[in-house]
Amino acid sequence: MEQRINYSKTAPKGIEILHSLENYIKSSGLEPSLLELVRMRASQINNCAYCIDMHTKDARSRGESEQRLYGLSAWRESPFYSERERAALAWTEAVTRVDEDQVPDAIYEQARKNFGEKELTDLTFAVIAINSWNRLAVSFRTLPGSYKPDHPVAKKRMPEVTK
What we know:
Elements: H1 7-10, H2 12-26, H3 32-45, H4 49-61, H5 66-71, H6 83-96, H7 98-101, H8 105-114, H9 117-139, H10 154-157
Helix pairs in contact: 2-9, 3-4, 3-6, 3-9, 6-8, 6-9
């Protein structure tokens, strides 16, 4: 597989705008571990190998357990996630698949029990952002494997990826 277009070089202003959204999300107060689960789950749904690789590495570099990462695609049947994480994952799936069910009321109610209005809006921005990144990476075939986390713990814990 070969990357089609390097969208970071061809449209740097667009990438800058997406990075601005990511900076807003980072400052939102939502837990970084929750955001990584959301990013990974949306990336799984969208079959984005690059983003799955990236966010798995980011989550691991911040101390996420292998068990929770492996169980993410079957989170409903796994006891490893909190009620708040489950609400976020259900919301992520519904917003990512908005064409299927238009975000059902039951999922909205579950999310509202676990998130305030601003938190839920910020969570939705996080889902929008990762879906945008997924669509870029999938459309232009961004190759997985080269990403290295920049979290300080990663430099101590992450083994080198060899090809």
